[in-house]
Structures are given as structure tokens and as C-alpha cells.
Amino acid sequence: MNDIAHLIQLLTVLLLAVFVGFEVISKVPTTLHTPLMSATNAIHGIVFIGAIVVVGTLFAGPTSPMLTIISVAALTLGAINVFGGFAVTERMLQMFKKKEGPRS
Amino acid sequence: MTVALSLANLVAVALFIYGLHQLNSPPTARAGNQLAMVGMAIALVSSLLQTQGVGWWAILVGVILGGTIGIVAALRVKMTAMPQMVALYNGAGGAAAAAISTLEFFVLANGNGENAVVSVSLVLSAIIGCLSFAGSIIAFLKLQELMTGRPITYPGQQVVNGLILLAILGLAGWFVVTLGTMPVLAFVGLLICALLLGVLFVLPIGGADMPVVISLLNSFTGLAVAVTGFEINSTLLIICGALVGASGTLLTVMMGKAMNRPLTNVLFGAFGSGGGSEPEAGSGGPQQIRSAGADDVAIMLAYASKVIFVPGYGMAVAQAQHSVKALADQLEKRGVQVLYAIHPVAGRMPGHMNVLLAESNVPYEQLLDMEDANPEFPTTDVALVIGANDVTNPAARNVKSSPIYGMPILDVDKAANVIVLKRSMRSGFAGIDNPLYEMPNTSMLFGDAKASVDALTSAVKAL
Q1: Does the ipTM surpass 0.90?
Q2: What pTM value is reported for the model?
Q3: How confident is the model at residue B431 (pLDDT cuts 50, 70, 90)?
Q4: How many CB atoms lie within 10 A of CB B387?
Q5: Interface of B with A in 115-174 (CB under 8 A)
Q6: SS3 per-residue string spanning chain A
Q7: Residue positions of B annotated with a catalytic role
């Protein structure tokens, strides 16, 4: 029963996050949609933390070479998202400039 | 789970949400991205401290390998190739979620946990992750032109996809009923089916529909991450996944609206397979088309008071964004007002054209989206269409039989003069005739977009 209460708690968090997400993202102008996508790529790089958690339980016991490879793969993919996503977003946003100097 | 870790996660979530909020305008966007970076750093460091060194070398290898690949790719990628890049990042996120679920499966198989919530979320995250990964790889191959961008169709396609989906559902049901203790081979079969479905569902989608597909795969990846959060009981993953999922879904809906087509039509319509020829546009098209020389067009541009550039995928392919800016500079020097009209689905991903023009230093105030651009066209002297086709096709307004009928378009035909830069008279991606080319106020300037724009620039300079 406790499990179900906990599940409902998590679902509440999910629901609220979805609403906040829609609300916040709907304010992003079309000009910034590409950087928005790469920024969300970086944010879903949070799976890296998921990988850390699973690797933690896995490596506490005996593991096999195959599981080790999958672990490293999961961590690498997550890291690619985090570092690559933020770096490319930063690179793009640097380019969005205002008009230099007053003109007409 | 310590208080410190929960607190760190709370701060991270706040920074993510505020960072995304800051993306609501170009001047604050960069600060927003940096806030999100700080949030990520806080979340990562606090989670790392929690591991107490278990598996530290695997984590180190992952960070070094992934960090190097990610940063080098981010610094090297051409702005024209952003759609491919984002497709790969989507795929990486999906694959990571699926890999985590696979690892969890082996933990479960060792009898470490038996819980309905974990089994359901595990199998969902594995399936969605695989779909997103495989679909993204196909999208990447299409965008990188390593395979044809045309829809790939074969008879019975939907039946095959349906059967695979049934197999996935069956295996997933088995997995949940046995609380994750099904044979390894069956689980591997499930992963393979999900990968296969991911490949097959993107294959029939054409290049022009890529903005929708990339957005959809983005939302899939977000969903996979959120479900992974349920699997490992992490609100941080749930929230981040939900934010990404919401973003991807919203963009998907926007792109669908911009094309006035329901999502199902994009996914299953195999749009642009060039099925039937469209005889509605009257007889003998090519005779009615006027082709102009760079010098004539240059004069028209130089003595205009307002010029609107309408960029499309052709500008990206020709890498012409810097040349376009150079031409705009020449015109502005002569006192011509220059604006850019950008259709939501121009290019291969949401905002693609904006980033290219930003790269060539076009101030973002000059970039108009469709609603702001259309009222400008009637008072525009010259609309210069650079590698855009279907998004300017007036058939969408008045030819009921046209496949793009009803799609909101940029009303370039309402400008006093329309110049279309085009490689040849081949019809656009969707294989639809464009009556714009035959209108009396339209002239065509044939050739590579970059070469044509450069020729215009030097011709304007010479005046």
C-alpha cells in the first residue's frame, strides 16, 4: 500500500513538471527553438545520474564484462548529452546578437 | 538518500526551470543556459559524492570519453548540420535510458528487487529508449544524406509495423507479469523489436518532415528519461524528463500546425513520395517562367525601399548564410530596409534558419516569423526567396487538390516583385508544382544559392 502512495507522489511530481514544462517552453520564441532543443538535450543528459545510481548497485556485487561494457556505454552516452548539449547551446546563443549601434 | 543530496537536487531543478524560462528572449538566453549548466554541475557532483567510490573508474571513463566526444563535436559541428547533431543527441539520451534499463534488468534477474512499479517503468524505458535511439539514427542518416531523404515505403508497411508493435506489447506484458524475471533471451528480443520499430517508423518519413520527427524523438527521449526516474526512484530524472518531454511535444504540435497536418499524417502519410503527378497547375509550365540575370535583379534590389529575404533549406545546403548577410549589408548601406521572413518549418528543424542567420551576424530583430512577416509583404518591393519552396507555394491557399492545401504559407506572392533563387526547375522536396514561379511578378535566378547571392552582392556593389 505504501508503494502505491509513493507511486502517486512520483506521478504528482511528473504531472506538475509536465505543466511547468509546457508553461515555460511555450514562452520560448521561435528564433530560439534550435538552442532550446539542444538545451533540452543537455538536460536529459541527467540520465547520467541514473547511470551512476545503477552502476552503484551493480558494481557493489560481482559483475560480468558485458554488464561493465553496458555501464560504461550508458555513462558515456549520458556524458555526451550533458557536455555536448550545453557546449553547443552556448556556442549558438553566443551568436544571437542585437543590432549594433542605433540605426534609423 | 541524505538531506544534502535532496537539497542539491532541489536547487538543480530550480536552476533548470529558471534556465529554461530565461530562454524566453535572446538577450537572457545565454544566462539561462549557464544557469542550467550550474544546476547540472550541482546535481552531478552531489550524486557522485553519494556513490562512495563504487564503480569510480567506470564513471571516470564515461566522463572523459563522453565529455571529449560531446565537446569536440559541439565545437566542430557546422551550424547547417545542427539538425543531425540534435538527432544524435536525442539518440544518445534514448540509448542511455535503454542501457540503464538493461542493467536494471540484470539486477532484477539476480533477485534484488521485485516491484510492479519498477518492472513497468523498466520495460517502458527500455522500449521508448530503443525507439528513440533507432529512430534518431535513421533521422541522422537521412539528414546527413547518408541515405535517401525520400520516404522509403513498401507494401504492407503498416502491417509489419503493427505486428512488431504487437510482439513488443506481448513481450512487455510477459516481462511485467513475471516482475522482470523473464529469460534473458526474451528481454533481448524485446530490445531488438523496439529497435526495429524505431528504424521502420522513421524510414517512410521524408526529409521535409524532419522538423516534426526530430521534435517527436526529442519528446520520446524525455519520456524515456522520466520513466527511468520511476525505475530508479529519482524525482530529479522524472522532472528533467518531463521538462524535455513537454518541450519536444510542444514543438511537435507547433510544427504540425505550421504544416496544417495532423501528426498521424506526418508519421504515416509518407509525404513527398511523389506518388502522383499534379496536373492542376495548367499546361506547359516552363514557357511561362521568366528567368532574370544577376545584374537586373541587383538593380531591382538596390533601388527598392524594402526587401524581405525568405530563406529555406536550400540556403543551408549551399551554406549561403554569410553571403546573404553580405548582400544585406550592401543593401542597407544604400538605405534599403532588409528583413527576413522565416517559416516555422523552413529547414530541417525548428529554428534552423534563425540559427544560421544568427551565425552570420544578422540581428535577431530583423528575423520575422510568419505572423509578423505576412503583413509586411504587400508593402515590400522585392521578396528574395533563397532555397525555400513549399513554404511559399500559393497553391496552399487556393488549390484544393494540392497536397499542401491549407498549410499556412509566407505570402511572398503579395510583394511587388518576387525573385526566386533556385538551382533548377526541379520541383521542391514534396514534388509539388509551385504556381509562384509562373506569376507575372516573379523572376527566377537559376544557380547555386551561394553563387547567385555572391553575384548579386558584387553587382549591387558595382552600381
Answers
A1: yes
A2: 0.91
A3: low
A4: 27
A5: 115-117
A6: CHHHHHHHHHHHHHHHHHHHHHHHHCCCCHHHHHHHHHHHHHHHHHHHHHHHHHHHHHHHCCCCHHHHHHHHHHHHHHHHHHHHHHHHHHHHHHHCCCCCCCCC
A7: 390
